[in-house]
Write a structure and sequence with these properties.
mainly alpha, 172 residues, single chain, 0% strand
Length: 172
Amino acid sequence: MGILIFVGPLALGEVETRFIFCSVASLALFNRLNEINVDKAVELVLSFMNFNGGFGCRPGSETHAGHIYCCLGILSITQQLHHVKADLLAWWLCERQLPSGGLNGRPEKLPDICYSWWVLASLKIIGRIHWIDKDKLVRFILAAQDEGTGGFSDRPGDMSCLQKTLKQQGSV
């Protein structure tokens, strides 16, 4: 069994959920999860869980929708979703929906169209996607579309970009 080390670009020592998710997902795609200590990977991911049911990028860090998605992805791939407090987590995720219908990644931040992916995918994984106000979110997403290019911006009135367009398309 391999050594469990998940580091960021150029081995700068940054260890966090994105790298773990990419590693676990890649190994699963190639049917090679046996190359790592899956129990240790799950243990590490569970150490990122916070009191509100969410996950940060490392133990003790702030809950963030992007890291929730990565951790849920890892737990789903490793068949360990039973550790998740699904209703508590879904409540936190649904609280990310603002009066505009858009979603943010953490409290007190502006809505950003990319969170239509991170939040909806997370809610889908835990079977609570129906908890979000779909109609309000659709209005927000459509308002963020650039009529000239067809692309999407982070929020209505901003310039569209490829990354935001891709994430929005994934959420649909």
